[in-house]
TrEMBL record:
It comes from Tanacetum cinerariifolium (Dalmatian daisy). This is Gag-Pol polyprotein. It comes from the Eukaryota. It holds the Pfam family Retrotran_gag_2.
């Protein structure tokens, strides 16, 4: 178990990027990746310029164009792409061209916003604790699902999410839920 956890952590670090490396594209999570990549670009020296170059194309000064800036912007994005995506965009000449092509590819690859929301809603409907799962693990999975729902602009009501969490606990934890509910009833009188 510990080795799996360590590998998962290493993979998470690799996917998230670092100060010296941009985040790696996860094809199933293009929107969060693009946000992280743009934040990474902003954190670099001349970050605003890199960010603007990615979104709007290379900045060209009227008098003297600096050589090498566009190449740095291109490399910022290329370093965060998996091999198959890299192969499809390495002929692009500007960061903006790469950005737009990756965006277009992810729209085609992604299952679509509506389908993704439907998938998340289905996951919400089927969410339950696993047999023998610790309450901490259950809570972390629940928070991840809630974060995914919020990221995709689907906000279950607070009472619905609280009930979902409590009603799907393992039997050994549900007695505590009953105690809490009974205690609330006592204080109502």
């Amino acid at each position: 178990f510990h080795i799996t956890f360590a590998m998962s952590t290493q993979q998470d670090i690799y996917a998230a990027g670092s100060e010296s490396r941009p985040p790696m594209l996860n094809k199933e999570n293009y929107v969060p990746w693009s946000s992280r990549l743009l934040r990474y670009a902003k954190s670099r020296p001349n970050g605003k310029l890199i960010h603007n170059s990615i979104l709007n194309g290379p900045y060209v000064r009227r008098m003297i164009a600096e050589l090498g800036d566009g190449e740095r912007d291109v490399n910022t994005i290329l370093l965060g792409l998996p091999e198959d995506i890299y192969a499809a965009v390495d002929s692009c000449e500007t960061a903006q061209e790469i950005w737009l092509r990756v965006q277009q590819m992810m729209k085609g690859f992604d299952i679509g916003i509506q389908e993704k929301k439907a998938k998340l809603f289905n996951e919400w409907e089927r969410f339950t604790s696993n047999e023998g799962e610790s309450i901490e693990s259950y809570y972390h999975r629940f928070l991840k699902l809630m974060n995914d729902l919020k990221r995709n602009k689907h906000f279950p009501e607070k009472i619905a999410s609280n009930l979902k969490f409590l009603n799907n606990l393992q039997p050994e934890w549900s007695r505590y839920v009953t105690i809490v509910c009974d205690t609330r009833e006592i204080f109502k009188f």
